[in-house]
Design goal:
Shape of chain A: globular
Helix content of chain A: under 10%
Number of strands of chain B: 11
Helix content of chain B: under 10%
Oligomer: heterodimer
Distance between the termini of chain B: 37 Å
Strand content of chain B: over 45%
Distance between the termini of chain A: 41 Å
Order of helices and strands of chain B: EEEEEEEEEEE
Shape of chain B: globular
Structural class of chain B: mainly beta
Radius of gyration of chain A: 13 Å
Chain lengths: 114, 117
């Protein structure tokens, strides 16, 4: 069964600083990996995804993530934080065998200080 | 751009009442899902639905819950007798297009907030 662990329920960075949100996964088969963002009182929006191919994937709003199979990680980064990046971020994993049932991590709330 | 739509956006109900949450998935998608997010907590999988039947359900999805695709466009979640602990945001999602290569990406609606008093 797949699972996702997000390290740090809260991360605080200064505007312009590097954003690093950590995610480790467990999956019995090659996984599909995702990062979703949730702004207050809104739904979930896909930031980026890894399915196959290049392990460094780029998403919207300047975010990127690297799939590292040896470390079972899929950390999310952004070189320079912006105030508008403040939100909840969810790492997620899905498996083809599960009908693409997606399992979410507990989420990391990103705070951006001026 | 096609999107998943959910109604109502917010529903307040008395404990023990039945609630139906409605969703219109993206039209060429094959899989449909309901997720739940209790305030401040993680997004939890409830159920997946494919080919007019449940393909998988979680422990949360007990006999109080049911899903239905009554026509070609709607996908509903029914809670038969609501409890206080059912208060949460319920998200509908769809995925796996008939015409496109499968990416595993889910498309989520904006959610329906259920408050049980």
């Amino acid at each position: 069964a797949q699972s996702v662990t997000q390290l740090g329920s809260h991360v605080s960075v200064s505007e312009g600083a590097l954003v690093l949100l950590r995610c480790n996964y467990s999956s019995s088969v090659p996984p599909y990996l995702f990062w979703y963002v949730q702004y207050p009182n809104q739904g979930l929006q896909l930031l980026l995804k890894y399915t196959t191919g290049a392990t460094l994937v780029k998403g919207i709003n300047g975010f990127e993530a690297e799939f590292k199979k040896s470390e079972t990680s899929f950390h999310l980064t952004k070189p320079s934080a912006h105030m508008s990046d403040a939100a909840e971020y969810f790492c997620a994993v899905s498996e083809v065998a599960g009908g693409f049932k997606t399992i979410f991590g507990a989420g990391t709330r990103l705070f951006v200080k001026a | 751009e096609p999107e998943v739509t959910q109604t109502p956006s917010h529903q307040v109900t008395q404990m023990g009442q039945e609630v139906i949450l409605r969703c219109v998935p993206i039209s060429n998608h094959l899989y449909f899902y309901w997720y739940r997010q209790i305030l401040g907590q993680k997004v939890e999988f409830l159920v997946s639905f494919y080919n007019n039947e449940i393909s998988e359900k979680s422990e949360i999805f007990d006999d109080q819950f049911s899903v239905e695709r009554p026509d070609g466009s709607n996908f509903t979640l029914k809670i038969r007798s609501t409890k206080l602990e059912d208060s949460a945001m319920y998200f509908c999602a769809s995925g796996t297009s008939r015409s496109n290569k499968n990416t595993g990406e889910l498309f989520f609606g904006e959610g329906s907030r259920l408050t049980v008093l």
